Amino acid sequence: MPDTLGQRALNRALLARQLLLRRTKLTPLEAVRVFGVPNGVFPGTVLVDGLVRGSWRITRSQAGAALEIEPYGRVSKKDREALESAGARLVRFAVGEDACDIRFAPLA
């Protein structure tokens, strides 16, 4: 097989995806939740100590903005407080609102 620039780029992309999946230690169910989305639009990812531990999305209504966090497993109190702090900064940056409601979805 000829070693073309396109083939090398494809090989690097596949290797990067494999390394990402290995490094984040996603279970098959978590991988489907993160990567199996319609139209290629990926949800926001919650990282704890560099590992994928959930997803997030911002919703808006007349009452204001809300950050909904869906953890994939148990979250310690310390990590929950850190997520709330980072989430408030995220909403302030993305939506421009200082006050927001931060909700954690119950574990399935």
Your description of this structure?
By secondary structure, the protein is an alpha+beta fold. Helices cover 43% and strands 27% of the residues. It has 3 helices and 4 strands; from the N terminus they run H-H-E-E-E-H-E. It has helices spanning 5-24, 28-35, 77-94, and strands at 44-48, 51-61, 64-71, 100-104. It has a 4-stranded mixed beta sheet with strand order 1-2-3-4, with helices on one face. The longest helix has 20 residues, at 5-24. It starts with a helix and ends with a strand.
Features:
alpha+beta; 108 residues; four-stranded mixed beta sheet; 3 helices; 27% strand
Bulk shape: globular
The average pLDDT value, as a whole number, equals 75
Distance between the termini: 47 Å
Write down how many β-strands occur, each being a DSSP E stretch of 2 or more residues. 4
What's the Cα radius of gyration?
17 Å
Structural class: alpha+beta
Main β-sheet: number of strands, strand sense, barrel status? Answer: 4 strands, mixed
Write the element-wise H/E pattern from the N-terminal end onward: HHEEEHE
Give the number of helices. 3
Percent in helix: 40-55%
Strand content: 25-35%
Strand order of the largest sheet: 1-2-3-4
Low-pLDDT segments, ≥5 res: none
